[in-house]
Every structure is written in structure tokens, then in C-alpha cells.
Amino acid sequence: MRERSLRRANWYRHVLAVNAPAALACWLTAGGSLTARLKAHADAFRVQVLHQHAAQCLADEAAALGTHRAGRVWEREVLLRCDNTPVVFAHTVVPMSADASDWPLFSALGDRSLGTTLFGDPMVARGPLEYARLRGSHPLARRARAALSANGIALPDERLLYARRCLYRRRQGTLLVTEVFLPRVAALVPKTSNTR
Ligand SMILES: C=C(O[C@@H]1C=C(C(=O)O)C=C[C@H]1O)C(=O)O
Predict the structure, then answer these.
(1) Closest Cα to atom 2, ligand 1: which residue?
(2) Rounded distance from Cα 2 to ligand 1 centre (Å)
């Protein structure tokens, strides 16, 4: 039982439940597209695709996706980079049972931001945000650390990571986006549009 609990997180509807540092709370609760917000805090924004392939959905995702058990999904994982610094590890899953017409742009996204396809489509309904504090043993914390390590950035196993997730619906399809906020996001400052 303990092993299972290490792989799951408690997901809350209110951000206060995860007791995030103030500098992260504003990112966790920001409305609209995260991509757009990150672009406003950087001269250069980039999506580094880590993989997009068939996978098993995580233990604490099946219920959120509306699938009755941890079934097979299309999984996309990326690092979002501001001025080449990784600031978000994002994990998106779509049940394999989804019809191709539910998410027509998902499979061919490449290094374009998923957000640009979700927020521009009037057929997409966005659910409420949920928040979690991920222990080092959570699969997404492990993967975020591994992605950073592959880019020469060390993150201690014991470092708690704060995440949010949101379920999107389009036609009969569901798509679950989880964003794990990396420590360096707290150092971002808005870019002033006018140059003095
Ligand atoms: C949902 C959005 O798309 C972002 C881009 C993602 C991608 O390209 O895989 C994944 C999660 C998001 O942080 C957004 O911009 O809000």
C-alpha cells in the first residue's frame, strides 16, 4: 500500500491546500494559456519535446481522464524553456480510445505549443484547475528531474515540486494536461514591452 501511495499525489481544487511558496502560487493559479504567460516573461520561448508516444496512464490520472482503469494513452512530455532555461515540465495524456477527430492537431504538434491549439479552439472546454505537491517519488517528479539532469541541471530528490493539472474536453474526447513548475520559474520577471 505504501508503494502505491508514493506513486500518487493528492490533487486539490484549492491552491492553499498545497501551501506553495508565494512566488509559485501566482504561476499555479494563473488563468489563460501558460504559454502566453511564459512568453511575456522571456525574450525567447521554446517547447523542447522530450517524447510523444503510447504509454500507460499514471495511477492518479485514470479517474481524472474518465477511463475506468490505468489504460493506454498517447503521452506527450515537454520542457518549456524561457531564454533557454527550463521552467515547466509538462505532461499531457489523451486516452487511446479517443477518436482522431477529437484532437485533430495533437499528434502532429511537434515543437509547437499545445496551448496554441487549445486556447484558439472554441470547441475546447477547459475544466477546473487542480493542484498538488509532488514528493520526489511521484513519477512526474522523477521524470522532471531526469529531464533536467539530461540538460545538466541537478534537482535534489527531496525537493518538493508544485504542479497543477487541467482536464480539457472536445467533442467526445478528454485531454489531461499536468504542468510541473520547476524552481527557476520563480525567478522570471515580466518583460516590459516599451524600451526606455
Ligand atoms: C496548455 C498549454 O500548453 C502548454 C504547452 C504544452 C505542450 O506543448 O506540450 C503542454 C502544456 C502547457 O504548459 C498552455 O500553454 O496553457
Answers:
(1) 115
(2) 32
Query: What spacing in Å lies between the alpha carbon of 1 and ligand 1's midpoint?
Result: 33
Distances (CA, A) of 112 to 78, 106, 141, 187: 11, 10, 24, 24
Into how many domains does the chain fold? Answer: 1
Protein residue with least CA distance to atom 6, ligand 1: 114
Rounded to two decimals, what is the model's pTM? 0.94
**What CATH number corresponds to the domain at position 167?**
3.40.1410.10
Question: 10-residue block means of pLDDT along the chain (196 residues)?
Answer: 70 97 96 96 98 94 80 96 98 92 94 95 97 96 97 93 97 96 96 63
Q: Which domain holds residue 57?
A: 2-187
**Structural domain contains residue 193:** no
Is residue 100 assigned to a domain? yes
Q: Is 186 exposed, middle or buried (0-12, 13-18, 19+ CB in 10 A)?
A: middle
Q: Is residue 147 part of a domain?
A: yes
Other beta carbons less than 10 A from residue 58's beta carbon: 23
Q: Output the known binding site for substrate.
A: 76, 114, 179
ipTM above 0.90, yes or no: yes
Residue 140 lies in a domain: yes
